[in-house]
Probable membrane transporter protein (Nocardioides luteus), 304 residues
Amino acid sequence: MERLIIFALVGLAAQAVDGSLGMAYGVTSSTLLVATGVAPAVASASVHLAEVGTTFASGVSHWRLGNVDWKVVAKIAIPGGIGAFTGATVLSNISTESATPWVAGLLLVLGVYIIARFVFGKPPVFIPGRRPGLGLLAPLGLFGGFIDATGGGGWGPVTTPTLISSGTLHPRKVIGSVSTAEFVTTVSASVGFLVGLAGEALDWRIIGGLLVGGVIAAPFAAYLVKHLSLPILGGLVGSIILITNGRTLLRNFDAESVAAYGVLFAVAAVIVAIAVRKSGGRLTDAQEPAPEPAAEPVNANANA
C-alpha cells in the first residue's frame, strides 16, 4: 500500500508538470520511478500504459476549458500514433543514443527562443483562426511519436516548443492540443509495447498508482494553462526545456554535478522571476485570448 501511494504521488507530480506545460510527463515520472528503485525498462512501459488514462483525463480537462484546437489535434495525432507504434514495435531495439545530444541541443535552442520571445521580447499577437498547417504538423507528429516511444518520453518536449516557437497558435491552444493528441500516441505506443514485451510481467501497482495520481492532477493542470499569463507560461515552458535538455546533455558528456544542476535551476528561477515581474506581479492574463471569429450575418437590405 505504501508503494502504491508513492507511485500515485509520482503520477500526480508528473501530470501536474505535463498538463500545465505540455511536456515532461515521461521524463518526470520515469526519473522519479527509477529513483524509487524501479528498473528503467519496466518504468518506461509502465509510464506509457498509465498515460492511456492520464492523457484521456488531460484531454477532457483541456477541452472543457477551451484549450483545444481540434483541427490541430486531427492533423498531428494520427501521424503521432503511427510514429509511436512503429517506434515501440519495430525500432525499439535500434539505439537512438547517438541522436540524443543533437535532439537535446535543438530543443535547447527552441527553449531559448521561446524565453527570448515570450519573456524578454514584445508579446506576440495571435490572429484568431490562424493555425499551423499539415506540412508542419504531420512530420512533427511522426517524429514526436517515434522519439516518445523509442526514448521513453519526448512527445511534449518535441512538439510543444516547436509549435509555440512557430507563433501560429496561442501557447494555451498548443499545450491543450498537444496534450489531447498525446492520447492517440500513447495508446499506439502502449499496444506496441504490449506486443514487444510478449507477456513479460508488469507491476500493475506502478501503473495503477501513476494513473490515479495523474487523473487527480489533470483538471488542476488544465486550469493553470487556461489562466496563466503569457510571459509566465512561456517562461515556465522555456525553463522546463532548459532543465530537461540541459540534464540530457550533461549526462551525455559525463558532466553531471551538483554545481551544474544548481546553475540550471538558478537560471530557470531567474527566468520565471523576470516573467512574473513582466506580468506586473499577476499570475493570470488581464484578458482572455480573442475567440474564433464568427461568420458575419448576411444583411438582406445591403444591396437595396
